[in-house]
Amino acid sequence: MRSGIPEHGRIPKYYAVKARLADLVEDLGEGGLLPTERDLAERYQVSRETVRQALRELLLEGRLRRSGRGTVVAGPKLEQPLSLASYTEGVRRQGRRPGRNLIGLETFPCPPALAPGIGAEPGEPVWHMERVLLADDERVGLESTYIRVARVPRLDSEFQPDSSFYGYLRDRLGIAFGDADEKLETVLATPREALLIGTPPALPMLLIHRFSRDRDGRPLERVRSLYRGDRFSFTTRLTSQ
After folding, report:
1. Which residues contact 42 (CB under 8 A, 6 or more apart)?
2. What's the pLDDT at 2?
3. Which one of 37, 127, 184, 214 has the minimum C-beta count within 10 Å?
4. Which residue, among 234, 233, 236, has the nearest Cα to 74 in the 3D structure?
């Protein structure tokens, strides 16, 4: 494959329309309103279904977004570093306003499968905190945090759910992060997750599982973070050893 064109040279009609729409997107710039599907079909002399398929791919890639009853050019994706920096810090570095909406904060007995990852005994109380991630009031992800109640006993009374949890651990409790193990994969959101984030269930998501340890090497937390694939990309720096 070269530039999306198969070796046999036969280009699917929708892909040719997509390439022309990509040029239109560049010309319009962020926030620019696209013509209607009917107008685009007439302009490119194709069916509305062909236009719809091309638009669907550009939406999934994050180059377009729905706005009311129209389609507009999306802004650049948020770049989140694969590091122990918090979500709040990563979003602020890009000039965006981070935020979180609390969905739930509760305790439950730690199941055996979770216990080793957070340094807990099976059955001891564990916090589960679930929050929707925001960037300039746009819902962009969903985050679940699991941590022993013994490590943060007053989480429900001291912590502001719309603020940085890592900042709270560092500044209020003096807990410093040491290192973490992360796994990144592509998934589809469940119907509940899609409803909370405000996306179609078919939209690809980026899922990160993180097990963090403190400076003394003790297991600290497990985090499950779900990010919109059309609004996020992840970066890291590699060095030779």
Report:
1. none
2. 47
3. 184
4. 233
Condensed to tens digits (0 to 9), the pLDDT of residues 170-186 reads 999 999 889 999 999 98
* Angle subtended at Cα 68 by Cα 64 and Cα 72, rounded to the nearest 5 degrees: 25
**Phi first, then psi: what are they for 188, rounded to 5°?**
-105, 140
CA dist 24 and 62 (Å) reads 15
186, with CB counted inside 10 A (0-12, 13-18, 19+), is: exposed
Residue carrying structure tokens 């005994």 = 121
Q: Which long-range contacts (CB under 8 A, 24 or more apart) does 94-100 make?
A: 96/135, 96/136, 97/134, 97/135, 97/136, 97/137, 98/133, 98/134, 98/135, 99/133, 99/134, 99/135, 99/137, 99/162, 100/131, 100/132, 100/133, 100/134, 100/143, 100/161, 100/162, 100/163
For the cut 60, the answer to whether the pLDDT of residue 231 exceeds it is yes
- Once rounded to an integer, what is the mean pLDDT over residues 120-137? 95
Q: Is 58 helix (H, G, I), strand (E, B) or coil?
A: helix
Burial label, 165 (beta-carbon count in 10 A; 0-12, 13-18, 19+): buried
- 99 pLDDT more than 50: yes
Q: Which two tokens stand for residue 89?
A: 């810090």
Q: Using one digit for the tens of pLDDT, what is the confidence trace for 192-217?
A: 999 999 888 778 899 999 999 999 99
Q: What is the DSSP letter of 114?
A: T
Measured distance CA(180)–CA(221) in Å, rounded: 9
Q: Are 125 and 110 in contact (CB under 8 A)?
A: yes
Beta strands at 125-135 and 138-148: parallel, antiparallel or unpaired? antiparallel
Alpha-carbon distance of 141 to 232, in angstroms, equals: 9
Sequence-ordered alpha helix ranges (H) in the chain: 13-28, 37-44, 48-60, 87-92, 115-118, 155-158, 165-171, 191-197
